[in-house]
């Protein structure tokens, strides 16, 4: 069983461990810089990128405002097309539904399309606990699964691994899961891909149940959409007799016209492609073509709570392109595991604390896992103002109290009073100038924040005095 994020330490501790690993840093730097440069070139090809981005933002906001209506319309359309819709309030309910559906087929193994929603709810672990084997078929997910690892990137879950490490994982572990890797396997990309292809092929041909997520759901026709690059998704979505899709409720778009915008912005933002190699769409069931039974599990798991937050709800616009991860200086150094969630990087720092809450130290640390440089906002194809949400969530964490935050709040209260009393502020400034030789150059304390910062030099005379004299 692959490792989960349960029991992970808070971000500062996990990040400190990660930055001490030079191989990990080199892997991440190489991969993120390659993808981000390609993305920039792909986006620059479009003259109307800014308009597409704005259209995406508006479509998502408009849809979220009337989410209940669109979901009911979707349910109606899926049902009319021969599918069955299930509603899951949380991870436990979703896992119960999927496990029950697989048991009902009599099968004990499923093939999976890469899906963030099923990782979020820990579906593989829930299935395994009930004696059902779940086989990941996306290449990077396969590497993570065989290596009993955790995913560290939304799009490239094994981004922390280099080719040599992947070859070792294939050589050591493939035989435990099915067809072994060739003895003379090299670390050439074509050889690794061929080994994975042969290993997976027998699973595709044998599987009777497929499990997927979806990138989008079109309410007007009840159509689900998966975009991918390898073709494994197409196999899982068409070959099995039963298809079960677990999808977050925010993935609905009202019409095909709305979908058009995202099918332009998502590939360029994620894989820097003009269009995805494979875009699979299905609507319910069709006689003698594809799965004969289709189940859609609509997942809430904290999304309704996020929707109720006026600032935080913009995180639900996310189309999981991962562009924000690839430009983030914190992610580049700390890597994905440090975020303690299947959603790493800037989007994880605002999504996880909203989906899971901030009760645990690990989740409460996430809004602070950022320098607030704003690079994530610049690249986001749906214009999520991630820095704004980070600051908002920091306010929520600080508002809860606790020793560190009591001090912070006392300091903010003192600063508020001082700025409200200009006379006292001027006296304080003059006193600081008079005592400038004894003012320390570093803030007091030896914490991680204070230890790494210097205080600004106190000027010989306060600016307001200089201004009074020189204004004329
Ligand atoms: S927050 Fe924006 S940039 Fe980041 S994954 Fe989501 S859509 Fe992409």
Automatic annotation (TrEMBL):
Keywords: 4Fe-4S, Electron transport, Iron, Iron-sulfur, Metal-binding, Repeat, Transport
Superkingdom as given in the UniProt entry: Bacteria
Keyword Magnesium: no
GO biological process assignments: lactate metabolic process
Record-annotated LUD domain positions: 73-298
Ranges where the Lactate utilization protein B C-terminal domain occurs: 395-470
GO molecular function: 4 iron, 4 sulfur cluster binding; metal ion binding
Region (Disordered) location: 435-460
Composition skew (Low complexity), residue ranges: 435-447
4Fe-4S ferredoxin-type domain: residues covered: 315-384
PANTHER family (UniProt xref): LACTATE UTILIZATION PROTEIN B
Protein name: Iron-sulfur cluster-binding protein
Organism: Streptomyces lavendofoliae
Upper taxonomic lineage: Bacteria, Bacillati, Actinomycetota, Actinomycetes, Kitasatosporales
């Amino acid at each position: 069983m692959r490792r989960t994020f349960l029991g992970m330490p808070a971000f500062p501790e996990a990040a400190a461990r990660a930055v001490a690993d030079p191989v990990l840093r080199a892997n991440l730097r190489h991969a993120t810089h390659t993808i981000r440069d390609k993305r920039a070139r792909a986006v620059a090809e479009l003259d109307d990128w800014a308009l597409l981005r704005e259209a995406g933002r508006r479509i998502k906001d408009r849809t979220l405002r009337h989410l209940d209506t669109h979901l009911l319309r979707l349910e109606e359309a899926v049902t009319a097309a021969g599918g069955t819709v299930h509603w899951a309030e949380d991870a436990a309910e979703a896992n119960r539904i999927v496990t029950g559906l697989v048991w009902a087929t009599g099968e004990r193994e499923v093939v999976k399309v890469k899906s963030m929603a099923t990782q979020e709810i820990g579906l593989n672990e829930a299935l395994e606990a009930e004696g059902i084997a779940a086989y990941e078929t996306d290449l990077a997910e396969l590497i993570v699964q065989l290596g009993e690892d955790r995913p560290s990137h939304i799009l490239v879950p094994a981004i922390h691994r280099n080719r040599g490490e992947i070859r070792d994982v294939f050589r050591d572990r493939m035989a435990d899961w099915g067809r072994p890797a060739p003895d003379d396997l090299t670390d050439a990309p074509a050889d690794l891909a061929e080994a994975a292809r042969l290993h997976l092929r027998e699973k595709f041909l044998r599987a009777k149940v497929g499990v997927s997520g979806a990138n989008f759901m079109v309410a007007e026709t009840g159509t689900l959409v998966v975009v991918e690059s390898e073709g494994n998704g197409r196999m899982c979505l068409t070959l099995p007799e039963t298809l079960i899709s677990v999808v977050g409720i925010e993935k609905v778009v009202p019409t095909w016209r709305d979908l058009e915008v995202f099918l332009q912005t998502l590939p360029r933002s994620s894989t820097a492609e003009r269009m995805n190699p494979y875009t699979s769409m299905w609507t319910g069931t069709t006689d003698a073509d594809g799965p004969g039974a289709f189940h859609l599990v609509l997942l809430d798991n904290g999304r309704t709570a996020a929707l109720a937050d006026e600032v935080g709800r913009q995180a639900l616009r996310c189309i999981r392109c991962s562009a924000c991860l690839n430009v983030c200086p914190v992610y580049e150094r700390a890597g994905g595991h440090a975020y303690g969630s299947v959603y790493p990087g800037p989007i994880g720092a605002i999504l996880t604390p909203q989906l899971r809450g901030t009760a645990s130290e690990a989740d409460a640390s996430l809004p602070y896992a950022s320098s607030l440089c704003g690079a994530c906002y610049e690249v986001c194809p749906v214009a999520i103002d991630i820095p704004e949400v980070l600051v908002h969530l920091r306010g929520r964490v600080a508002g809860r109290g606790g020793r560190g935050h009591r001090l912070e709040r006392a300091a903010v209260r003192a600063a508020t009073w001082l700025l409200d009393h200009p006379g006292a502020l001027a006296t304080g400034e003059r006193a600081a100038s008079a005592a400038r030789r004894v003012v320390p150059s570093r803030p007091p304390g030896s914490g991680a924040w204070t230890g790494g910062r210097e205080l600004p030099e106190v000027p010989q005379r306060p600016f307001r005095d200089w201004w009074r004299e020189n204004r004329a």
